[in-house]
Design brief:
The chain is α/β, with parallel strands linked by helices. It has a single domain, classed as Metalloproteases ("zincins"), catalytic domain (Collagenase (Catalytic Domain)), CATH 3.40.390.30. 42% of the residues lie in helices and 18% in strands. It has 5 helices and 5 strands; from the N terminus they run E-H-E-H-E-E-E-H-H-H. Strands 1, 2, 3, 4 and 5 form a 5-stranded mixed β-sheet that branches. Helix 1 links the parallel strand 1 and strand 2. Helix 1 packs across helix 4, helix 3 packs across helix 4 and helix 4 crosses helix 5.
Length: 168
């Protein structure tokens, strides 16, 4: 079975990272590889940023002058990936998540921050593996179906989403 090494870095101070989020991200990355029958070990980096930083990245790389929830920077193309010469692992790419936007979207959609971050991670991992919902409506539907199937296996399906009340 393939293994994935997930490098997680917090580059923001706006949102405190909830306990268990790093493990959730690793589980999501692994679930995508298993679901997609990815052969070989892999590496991916996940960075948490604030809205200002993701807006800058969105403008620089996509010419969209607005914050977004997640950006994916694949290192592979057509199933071909660079390889880490030391480990032999495929380098899938980078995922950048705005925690500020994730918190807002979780509230807006009426589910937990964990569900939102899980969704953003799965969504972005599928991009790293070549899925592109912007090509066509069919591609968008296929990608969405894959996302929900993976999230359901992780216990993060839409039907089981909920807002966790703080008991402070």
């Amino acid at each position: 079975m393939a293994k994935i090494k997930v490098y997680i870095k917090n580059n923001q101070n706006e949102v405190k990272i909830p306990v268990g989020i790093r493990l959730l991200i690793r589980r999501c990355c692994n679930a995508v590889l298993v679901s997609e029958n990815f052969n070989g070990n892999a590496e991916v980096s996940v960075s948490f940023v604030d809205n200002k930083e993701i807006k800058n990245l969105n403008k620089l790389y996509r010419d969209k002058d607005q914050p977004t929830d997640v950006l994916s920077f694949p290192l592979g193309e057509n199933g071909e990936y660079d390889v880490n010469n030391e480990t032999g692992a495929f380098l899938l790419g980078d995922i950048v998540i705005s925690l500020e936007t994730a918190v807002k979207q979780a509230a807006m959609f009426g589910h937990s921050l964990e569900r939102e971050i899980g969704f953003l991670t799965v969504h972005s991992m599928l991009h790293l593996l070549g899925y592109d919902h912007e090509k066509s409506a069919l591609d968008a539907a296929i990608m969405r179906e894959r996302e929900e199937a993976i999230l359901e296996k992780l216990g993060l399906s839409r039907a089981s989403s909920f807002i966790q009340e703080n008991e402070d």
